[in-house]
Amino acid sequence: MKLFSSTTRAVIKKKDDETKVKEIIPSDLNTFDGLGIKQFLLPTLKQFGIIKPTKIQQLCIPPLLSFHNVLGGAETGSGKTAAFALPIIHHLSTDPYTGFALVLTPTRELASQIADQFKVFGSCINIRVVQVVGGVDVIRILHHLSGSPHVVIATPGKLVSLIDHLPFSFDSAKFLILDEADRLFDPSTGMLDDVQKIRSKFSKTVTTGLFSATTDSLIPQLPALGLADTKILITGERQKLSDNCDQTYIFMPNKVKHCYLTYLCINKQCIVFCGSVLRTEVIFRMFKSMEIKATVLHSALPQIARENNLNSFRSGEALILVATDLASRGLDIPDVPLVINYDVPHTAEDYIHRVGRTARANRKGLAITLVDEYESDRIQSIESQLGVQLKEYKVDEEKVLNILTQTSNAKEVAFISLEGSEILKRAELEKKKKKQIKKMKKEIKLQTGK
């Protein structure tokens, strides 16, 4: 199969001290047939309404089919999973042995979604997929692994804890895929050491695919990762804010923020992003006390609860999803007309990922960031970095104040219900972990001078 010619290969350019990657897509790659994937995959794609490859699929499928390492960057919802799943299934159909491919991803939810897509695309060859993630009994995981899976999808920490007990090895694997690679290789997330331990179990000839919505931090790391000789280095468009998203803010005192939030959420379908597990749980319980149809998603919930809550929001049983940044990246959540930042995000990147949950697929959307007296500097910094200016969202102050007593009472009930709960204990552990990560980031900054 013909690979990109020298004129269509990704060209790395330096501009304003930032690495920029320009890609050119030949016209013959506008169909899955033209990309070179096996014919048996086409009916399955058509069955699910996937007729034409997306940009990231056009760029990444050909080099992966030819066993070249790739770095693929494209925004959430652009078809990144199919970009690596289809080449893997293509080759697996002719050489179906155990441990053919490993996919690493930062969260259990992403692992579940990736597993689902592999099972759908590979249904015609009876693909065997196993997830190695937290929240699942170890005996059960090992039992499934003993069934000779073709593809293993895992979170780094869980796989490292079992790596010496696997009934097979990855030394002959054909593919290693790192999804949300920027998070996997970020020292502050605590996953980097585990990722490197896992990579050491693979042959140096394994085909490696790195995928992420943001690639700027990854490109300089490639030599240190042993990927300097990557033949094809490609990226999609850098994730940006949709022109269809109306970005706004409301400024209010911190002590009445919950009141403004409730006013905005009544009878609305939306995602509310909070800055911590504890705050997420308090807002959810406050809504519950007020009989507002909401559900919640954060890392302190057991896996089964996270899955049930996501399904509740997807089905429309719950109109509001109150979540930490866990829900801002990668998860298969339907487009919503409204995103509310209850807490101002800590970084411009987090802001993009949150706000990117609305105004997708050419639909209109609204993002409202609630800003209190402690957060004005942070939102101004985000505006400056992104080159945008949020517009003020006008509200009827009298109507907001009319529900102040009701919402304050509900918030108090929420706090009381949390006392002594397992969620509170987990939230406190999460808080300690965040402090450690913050300290680590400062140390890294001092060491690197960046």
From TrEMBL:
Keyword ATP-binding attributed: yes
Residue ranges of every copy of the Helicase C-terminal domain listed in the record: 260-401
Domain Helicase ATP-binding: 61-233
Pfam families reported for this sequence: DEAD, Helicase_C
Signal peptide as annotated in the record: none
Family of this protein: Belongs to the DEAD box helicase family.
PANTHER family recorded: ATP-DEPENDENT RNA HELICASE, ATP-DEPENDENT RNA HELICASE RHLE-RELATED
Protein name as catalogued: DEAD box ATP-dependent RNA helicase, putative
